[in-house]
Amino acid sequence: MEFLDLESQDGVRMPWNVLPGTKQEASNCVVPVSAIYTPIKHFANMPVLPYSPLRCRTCRSVLNPFSIVDFAAKIWICPFCFQRNHFPPHYASISDDNLPAELFPQYTTIEYETPAEKCSSSSVFMFVVDTCIIEEEMAFLKSALSQAIDLLPDNSLVGLITFGTLVHVHELGFGQIPKTYVFKGSKDVSKDQLLDQMGFFLKKPKPPTGVIAGARDGLSSESISRFLLPASECEFTLNSVLEELQKDPWPVPPDERAARCTGTALCVAASLLGACVPGSGARIMAFIGGPSTQGLGAIVSKNLSEPIRSHKDLDKDSAPLYHKAVKFYEGLAKQLVHQGHVLDLFACALDQVGVAELKVAVEKTGGLVVLAESFGHSVFKDSLRRIFQFDDYDLGLSSNGIFEINSSKDIKVQGIIGPCASLEKKGPLCSDTVIGQGNTSAWKMCGLDKATTLCIIFEIVKKDSPDASVQPSSNQFYFQFLTYYQHSSGQMRLRVTTLSRRWVAGPGSIQDLIAGFDQEAAAVAMARLVSFKMEIEAEFDPIRWLDKALIHICSQFGDYQKDSPSSFSLSPRLSIFPQFMFHLRRSQFVQVFNNSPDETAYFRIILNRENVANSVVMIQPSLISYSFHSGPEPALLDVAAIAADRILLLDSYFTVVIFHGATIAQWRKAGYHNQPEHQAFAQLLQAPRDDVDAIIKERFPVPRLVICDQHGSQARFLLAKLNPSATYNTDSPLPGGDILFTDDVSFEVFLDHLQRLAVQ
Amino acid sequence: MAAPVPPGAPRQQPPPPPNYNPNYQQNPSSLSDNLQNLNLNRPPSMPNSAPRPSPFQPPHFPSSAPSPSFSRPGPPPPGAFPRPSVPPSGSPPPALPPNVGTVRPTGPPFSQPSPFGSRPPPASLPSAGSGVVMGPSSGAPSFGSLAPRLGAHPSPIASSTTPSSVPPSVSSGGLVSNGPHAPPFHGGPRFPPSGAAPQPPLMGPPTAGAARVLPQAPSMRPLMGSSGISAQQRSPFSAAPQGAPSYSAPPQGMPSFSPPPQGMSPPAGFPFGQQTQTQPVAPPPIPGSAPPTMFGMPPPPPLPNQMTAISPVVGQTGGSLAGSSKIDPNQIPRPIPGSSVILHDTRQGNQANPPPPATSDYIARDTGNCSPRYMRCTINQVPCTVDLLTTSGMQLALLVQPLALPHPSEEPIQLVDFGESGPVRCSRCKGYINPFMKFIDQGRRFICNLCGFTDETPRDYHCNLGPDGRRRDADERPELCRGTVEFVATKEYMVRDPMPAVYFFLIDVSMNAIQTGATAAACSSINQVIADLPEGPRTMVGIATFDSTIHFYNLKRALQQPLMLIVPDIQDVYTPLQTDVIVPLSECRQHLELLLESIPTMFQNSRTAESAFGAAVKAVFLAMKSTGGKLLVFQSVLPSVGIGALSAREAEGRSNVSSGEKEAHKLLQPADKTLKEMAIEFAEYQVCVDVFITTQTYADIASISVIPKTTGGQVYYYYPFSALSDPAKLYNDLRWNVTRPQGFEAVMRVRCSQGIQVQQYYGNFCKRIPTDVDLPGIDCDKTIMVTLKHDDKLQDGSECAFQCALLYTTVYGQRRIRVTTLSLPCTNNLSNLFRMADLDTQFVCFLKQAANEIPSTPPLNVREQVTNFCINILLSYRKFCATVSSSGQLILPEALKLLPLYTLALVKSTGLRIDGRIDDRSFWITYVSSVSTPLAIPLVHPRMIALHDLDTKEGNESPIPPALPLSSEHVSDDGIYLLENGQEGLIYVGSSVDSKILHQLFGILSVDEIPTQFVLQQYENPLSKKLNDVINEIRRRRCSYLRLKLCKRGDQSGLSFFSYLIEDKVPTGGLSYVEFLVHVHRQIQMKMSS
Question: Which residues form a coiled coil (chain B) (predicted)?
Fold first, then answer.
């Protein structure tokens, strides 16, 4: 696929690779003009230039292969603003056959790393640990944490905060006895108060004005090192503190929830980091085992008779604490973004813990999130290990990113849906319509990794021009993405991706648009957009919106005779799009009522940070079938794919299901795979396991693995995702013998309706 | 039970272990009920009188028999006599050990008087003047005083200023106690015959008993020696000479005594005066032999000089002085130290026996009334009407020290368990069963001596009455024959299970505390004291430190090391853990020791100058809230941050002099209400706070002390804190604090017979309802003053009872009710009141009230009040009781003859001095509010003894040499003196002391080498050993580890020493003792004439 090639060069996929040239046409296209960009995607061949980039004098865009260079005059013309720039003296030797790398046509994505800017600051981890959990969970968590601590790079700084009814800030640097500062869980503490109370100004009075920001101004490194120590120095202390860590000792009445002050703990952590290591890309890793019940950010009262909010409550606006909590976390997010710190969330509980409220803080800081049922679950344990593992599958955690966009003047940016925060840098580039993080041309990405993917929504502002004659040079739109970030090695880098896309307008442009349509990217953009709208717009009806969009696209780009549904056909470029939409309508992103608000928030956070391929899996899981008759082959995501003698592997991103057909299950239970004469059967059983392992290795968070048998209770994980082509209403049962107990329409019915509506 | 006895370190006496616990919860309501009842008084029912009648009726008591003899002689008083006599000779002797016997003797005399008094009332009284007569301008007064005692005949004295007359007269009435004697006077004439001669006979009977006693008697007296006693003693003298006196005297066994050598001894009281002895009077006094008896001084050994001189002095002096125009400073009344033990029966012949002075060493035997240690009244007879009381100028109040430390030889308080039904109580007033409840109707019903209600006797408590109208089992049941008993509290008295013994230590670790060594001292003291905490699973401890933040420690055993938990928010505090900051001692001993050892080093480099005292206390309170308990705070600087932060207002006051002068006393008030509100909350949850202030700067004790005051705690003050000399005191104070007998979560109420009600309580407690006081903590040192008021007339001849019920929890978690009952006769006779006045109690009550006033009233006004109080009493006495006609004499009631001296001392005391440090004054005020009677007197009127010649005095019973008058005349430049007030001991080293002595005592060669910080050491020489013995003995007796300081002339230390010599004239305007007497006299004269 050509789109994949483009992605593997620049890390960008766009629903429209040929752009509608005018505002009107763009709005007819329904799917917005957008780019799904992975800013620091790993490219094996990408050069890293050891010098500073050359920037345009007016628009600050970086010299790129699309610049027009006058070798004789030693001048380059910026493709965005057409400013003519002189090359500086050290480019004197530039010539047609002596190009700097940034001008090589294939290096549309390139990185600069200025040695002088090497940042010595090491990574900082602040563990924030919930202690209101049962002893068993406590034990799991302790062991996971101590493993993590073992894996920490020696020079990384570590701090520890535990919380329950109260917040305990452990002073790891106090040698004589274990020491903690205890803060009231129900009370908001400002950063200044916190510093004051933790004795930061004892030896050095607080500066009368200005912000306290680390050792640079205000704090002695001595007082910082009371709370943040190099892992190598505090490993022992940390381990012994963890070892002694007890379940929150405050009694919990039988009719109440534990008093848990998650919000306050995070606030304290943020303030502490803000004081000690501002701008350093520190990570707050929060391990949370239940709902916050007190202080700011509480999501539910302590009273057990009051249930934790559901989607229904949110819809009816009957979750009394929800908005307050969200507001609090928005404030926290703002603070963290300002400080350049990341909030990672590990929510492990059977109950909801408040991911829905925390989402804003996690997302804006680019934090990681893992949702599991228990601290003993592999989803949590393995994910945590992945974070600290430095090998081929390392996440490439980077920090302190700033993302900027330049583009041709007829294009504006509405915003970004993804893990970033607006820096509120307003400019001509900003559209009046705001989607996601908008109204800016620069975004902060406190935390980002190799997989972090943004969805940038553009707006075409070019008016219809009666003048059909267009100059070839001007039917290109240029985009430049600048990502300035701190590489996991500690160095500051700038990645520059410059793109050019052709635009078309006027009659006859539809075929060009179709040719440039990337239906996967479009599906993902639509998924992010519909999720976003569901969260933002109060009375939003996602099904209706999606259906309208799909119908509009089909009637716009389909090939049909009016009012003749049977005549309807779609170009192969568009053919799978309706299927994506069908599954998107049924997905956890739209059908939220099967999930808790926490789960929905979790799914959406992940959706918003994943690349196109993974997002598509979330929308429409992949199904692979294994049988004796053939090798592994993709199967239709349909109940018809079930057969007694097959093994199915369903990858829905969050969950991976290995489904043994009834016969296979019988054989397995009879132990045939252990018999030498049934080697083939053993291999058949093993094949999907191997594939699953491959998936798990690459994916973060680690998916949940479900191994189940046909007709088993766990089979629901598979059945829920299948197209209900055979239900209990169906007259003719399928050979596989499985039916789904649902009233949902099947894809066929959906398509029938679509065709009918599209041709009207 | 006994185990608990963490016997006070000082004293070896174990506290009555199990016994002390009352509960309280339900009491409150019951108490209030009672009150109402009381008000309701049933007039007629007032049975009290009924049972009581006995007092007057000698017949009842067989013992009285002997008395009769006396009575006869004495006309009306007979009844009275009987009793007195009875006790002495009567049963007591046999039953009691010899000593006891003696004790009684003294008792009787008093009782007798009353009877007399009643009859002859007014007229006699005046004459009685038993009071001391002071020649106002004329020096005579000094003698006068003596005279008065002799007093019985004061009249004579008065009239005849002449010495001669004096002696005789004196001897008679005076002794008896002014009041009583007076009557005698009238009778006197009749008696006269009996006079000298009769005495023997009269005395005879008693003597018989007494005779044996004699030897012992002396000892007794000595005790008496102190003020109160002295009165009696003298009376004896008088008695001796005159027949009349005999009454009083007789009981005392004067006769018997006199004969013996004692003659000389007389005077314990006199001792001081004695020096003047020059007066030949001796001869007359001889009769004075009586004196000897009185003082028991016989033990001349101890105070030989004084003793001897005194007796003579008395009689003679009186006379001579009167004549002379100047007061002889050596003759003016001064406390007579007693060195031997007095035996005291609380009741004799079914009559209340006036207690020995509070400051004396006595062994009380509870024969119905409580021991005076637990409760004593300002007057040992209760005026029947409020008018009578007002006329006297005295006040009616009780000093209650419910857990007072008994003498080791005293019988322990008995514990009574009534099982599930709980103690028998009056159903109307809820008064507890006591010896004065009268059973009637074959024991089927009983009449409450407090409210007069008649109750059914619970069936299982029924017992038939004997021929004497008492229950047959009365002597077997402690609650029916003892003034103090303890009941086991039932569930009804508990709102929750009795609390465990919780000790929480809170230590200041701010920069100053660390650098001055205060933290180290506190930690090491605590570390040592842990071993002294009560054993057992119910003993819990916790520890926290604080500077500008509060540090708790998780001492839970599972932890490898204690975990420090810091509460940094000092505006809104909380406890960091609910459970593990307070853990059973047995589970954390090692952690605790480890921690205490490391705390000083842990904060070694602390730069935190701020101290969040209020917040820390509040935070710890929150941790202790669920159980309650004792919080011991070690504070070293002015609390400067957090809740209840204080400002250095002392400095502000100083810088703003003009307003400072006028408003200075405001600095003695708490800065704001924050701490008070906190304290009330603490009290509600049974948290008792003690504060140890180890500071070198102003710490605003006025504000801080509110917390201990309200929670039943106490303030300890170490200023300026010395890391060298103070740790030992800190340790000893702390040890005594936790080991002394004490109780938790207590509630106390005093009930009175109909006609009297409680007006107000003063002390360290929290009061939430008008009738009860809440005491989160109560210990053997805490005294509560209870002022009383009449709401009706009492019946002459009846008895009025006071019952204090203290419901508390012992350190071992038992709930107890300690019930202390005191029943006193009522009188309509003013002179009886004066005769039965209890100087120590009277004065201490006044002291406490004055202390209470100081923060809200300018010092000058308070001084004036103090002086007027004294003057008014003397004026009343002069007006209504003394017959002396000469206006030139100052007449002092015998019992109150030291009142002017004490008053002067009070006027010059730390609390009323304006030049003192604010904190010193605040501390003084705080200390006074809960101080016990025996310790209050020395606080105001310290004891001074000579140290340089310790080794030359051998053979004293007591290692403590006799006290010297507090006058610089008695301080010589080549001497070394110790002046102690129960709190600190100033050792003054004269400028020309023999360097050999210096070396022996202090290891230095010259006065110039005197160190500012002093630690007493024992060197290998007898003198040094003696000194150590003396100091240790004083510490032991005071239950207080004196803070020793060396003083020398010419510097600050010297000035502070001399500031305690209250008899001296102070350049800034303080009168000398003599001048003060003159001043008082003039005032009286003015008022008489106006």
Answer: none
